[in-house]
Design a protein that fits this description.
about 575 residues; alpha/beta
Length: about 575
């Protein structure tokens, strides 16, 4: 295993006892970032470091030391420095003064300053990437470690309000990268929004509908309601660009096949059923596209969606659950009962959910807890009721954090626009998908209601999203299929990465847990500097009794070397 995360789970549990978002430890959120970039990774507790053989890190490339390990022992730090000495990279989140044993010119203080919704991130000109121009606009809710002595300016790769935010220090053949701010807290505040100060309650802030607490009310600030760039993704990508500056580290591409992004079209039926939705199925089928319908499920839902298997799911379309938290005929229908009505439509429980009117309520995580209890796998309730854009800073699925500091199994897939209420038009659709395909590489999600857009400009905008998605090479899919892709992708992992002359040799492995399919429908590997590397250097090996072939790969000669059994091997140019 090449990617390691050091986490003190007890510290996370202790922080949760305060019942306060601003005192929670967010180290579990590293899972989202690491799985997105590398697939599976190993988790190490601080106490287990004493028993881990030194050879354990022999094939390693990266160790991430989370903020839960600020008081990690001096012996562990020495071990990490030895790892860097031999060529590894150690990334340390919110380092303590204990790290001063190795770096006399970076005197790290015990002082931590809280940062609340300020801006002012600036990157060193030496760091490559397209993200520098966006960083100053990233809002930050985090904690910042204050150094007592400034490092060499050449080693400071990111600043916040003139304070070092990322410091890189060479060490032997490798390096140590200090994230002087709470990276995972900053990501959570953007991606999941923030509750009220000092609690996990949600108040009506800047959502557009009166008397309803919408997911928009969680957004980090008012500006995010029209954000045209995924600021959380940009902050993540910048951190990995910093790592890339030290050593080219291959990563797993975010989408299957040769796609540059993904596109999800969705429709909330608002109790209208199949009769009002049929024209959409017909029009989308003519384009060769598919989408997801979220069905509201009071009594009689099965009749509204009669013959759905034949007319909808049988054609590749998908039906999810539109959870209504409002009274229906003077009665609030419990979610369990709504699920029963949903099963009258498809015969199976739903995998994907969206809240009707995005009605979140006054609890930071309550809807997620109910969804998880009911077995939902995906949700798409984070988005604009009237705005447009990356309200939650991301165009990628993520596991939301719990109030206990863990992560929900459910994937949240935010959407960027519904109808044209927030000002979306043809130009907006084109720019959204162009920027995704060329720069941000996102999952773009749109919401159009069947009863709103049968004709006129709304119809053109709706169908135009599909055309623009195809134009900019996006995988047009459904929520369940996207979730399935990411769950398979998370099982893939680097076992070994070696630089041999001018080539990077990578060995992958994966455990399919009995799932009889490829881990991710076809994998591409890329590095930040060299864009995409497909084929040309990937080797798949068995893991336990399971294994698989990385398909859809192409080498320069157009041929793969078939080693038989579960293996495919080709060479990757560095």
């Amino acid at each position: 295993m090449c990617i390691h995360l050091v986490v003190d789970k007890q510290k996370i549990i202790e922080s949760a006892r305060h019942k306060d978002f601003y005192r929670l430890n967010f180290s579990s959120v590293w899972k989202n970032s690491l799985e997105k970039e590398f697939g599976a990774f190993s988790v190490i507790s601080p106490e287990s470091l004493e028993n881990v053989e030194s050879e354990y890190f022999g094939n390693g490339e990266l160790i991430f030391v989370s903020s839960s390990c600020r008081d990690i022992s001096s012996s562990a730090i020495s071990r990490f420095l030895s790892f860097a000495e031999s060529g590894g990279i150690v990334v340390v989140e919110t380092p303590s003064a204990l790290w001063n044993i190795g770096f006399s010119d970076v005197i790290i203080s015990t002082q931590i300053r809280n940062i609340n919704q300020e801006k002012g991130l600036y990157a060193s000109a030496s760091v490559c990437g397209d993200w520098n121009e966006y960083l100053p606009a990233v809002p930050v809710v985090s904690r910042l470690c204050l150094p007592e002595k400034n490092s060499d300016p050449e080693n400071i790769l990111l600043t916040f309000r003139n304070q070092p935010a990322i410091i890189k220090k060479s060490w032997g053949k490798g390096a140590v990268i200090f994230l002087m701010f709470d990276f995972c807290m900053a990501l959570t505040a953007l991606k999941q929004g923030i509750p009220s100060q000092g609690s996990f309650r949600v108040k009506k802030k800047h959502g557009r509908l009166p008397f309803i607490t919408e997911t928009e009310d969680l957004a980090i600030n008012e500006d995010m309601l029209t954000a045209d760039a995924p600021y959380a993704d940009i902050l993540e990508k910048f951190v990995f660009a910093v790592i890339e500056e030290v050593k080219p580290i291959p990563r797993i591409w975010y989408f299957p096949f040769g796609y540059d992004g993904a596109f999800l079209m969705s429709h909330d039926d608002e109790k209208r059923g199949k009769k009002k939705s049929g024209y959409m199925i017909e029009a989308e089928s003519e384009l060769g596209c598919i989408s997801t319908f979220f069905a509201t499920c009071p009594p009689g839902a099965g009749k509204r969606w009669q013959n759905a298997k034949q007319d909808i799911t049988g054609k590749g379309f998908e039906i999810g659950w539109h959870w209504n938290r409002f009274p229906d005929n003077f009665r609030v229908i419990p979610p369990e009962e709504q699920i029963n009505h949903f099963m009258e439509i498809t015969g199976n429980p739903p995998e994907s959910c969206r809240l009707h009117f995005l009605n979140w309520g006054s609890d930071y995580t309550y809807p997620f807890r109910i969804m998880e209890k009911l077995g939902l796998k995906q949700d798409s309730s984070y988005g604009p009721n009237r705005g447009r854009g990356y309200v939650f800073g991301t165009g990628m699925p993520f596991h939301p954090i719990t109030e206990e500091g863990g992560l929900f199994n459910i994937l949240e897939i935010p959407f960027q626009t519904q109808e044209n209420w927030g000002g979306a038009d043809g130009d907006y659709s084109l720019n959204l998908l162009r920027n995704s395909g060329e720069k941000f590489h996102c999952v773009i999600t749109a919401l159009f209601h069947p009863h709103k857009i049968a004709a006129g400009t709304g119809r053109e905008l709706w169908l135009g999203f599909f055309r623009n998605a195809g134009l900019y090479n996006h995988w047009i899919t459904t929520f369940d299929k996207l979730g399935d892709f990411y769950r398979r992708r998370q099982k893939l992992r680097f076992r070994e990465i070696k630089q041999i002359n001018d080539s990077l040799n990578c060995i992958f492995e994966w455990d399919n847990d009995g799932v009889d399919a490829e881990p991710a429908y076809g994998i591409r590997v890329y590095t930040g500097k060299n864009s995409l590397i497909s084929g040309n250097g990937i080797r798949m090996e068995k893991s336990g009794n399971n294994g698989g072939i990385l398909n859809n790969l192409s080498s320069e000669s157009g041929k793969l070397m078939d080693l038989g059994r579960e293996y495919t091997i080709i060479k990757i140019s560095g």
